[in-house]
Design brief:
This protein has 124 residues and is an alpha/beta fold. It has one domain: Oxidized Rhodanese, domain 1 (3-Layer(aba) Sandwich), CATH 3.40.250.10. It is built from five helices and five strands. The longest helix has 11 residues.
Length: 124
């Protein structure tokens, strides 16, 4: 397996390659069962609250061939708030690893809470 990963070439990705979603677009994508929503914040932050349906994969743990992303038709990443570059960095990392249909939700948990209100904590 290591040889295969070592042979794969990373794709060069710039900030302009990252597609951002507005809240309404995110909500529409979440209706599709093959959309994977990733909260890239540290686990302790995720445990305090996240967008319903999100899985937690902190930025350093994003890797090629993650089984949780195998069936994803779309991948949406988010972090804390507008201006937090963690989500954009995560989208770029996933795209560089060869994932397709990757989006960033730059409003993050902050915008979700302000406009949708419902969040889940680590116990739900």
């Amino acid at each position: 397996m290591h040889g295969l990963v070592g042979c794969m070439r990373s794709v060069k990705v710039s900030d302009s390659d990252v597609r951002s979603l507005e809240l309404r677009q995110l909500i529409d994508l979440l209706d599709d069962q093959q959309t994977v929503l990733i909260d890239v914040r540290p686990s302790k932050n995720f445990q305090q609250g996240s967008i319903p349906g999100a899985i937690n994969i902190p930025l350093p743990n994003l890797k090629r061939d993650d089984e949780r992303l195998a069936e994803a038709k779309q991948i949406v990443v988010y972090s804390s708030e507008p201006g937090d570059m963690l989500g954009r960095a995560a989208a770029k990392k996933l795209m560089a690893q060869g994932y397709k249909n990757v989006y960033s939700f730059p409003g993050g948990l902050d915008q979700w809470q302000r406009q949708r209100e419902h969040v889940v904590d680590g116990t739900e």
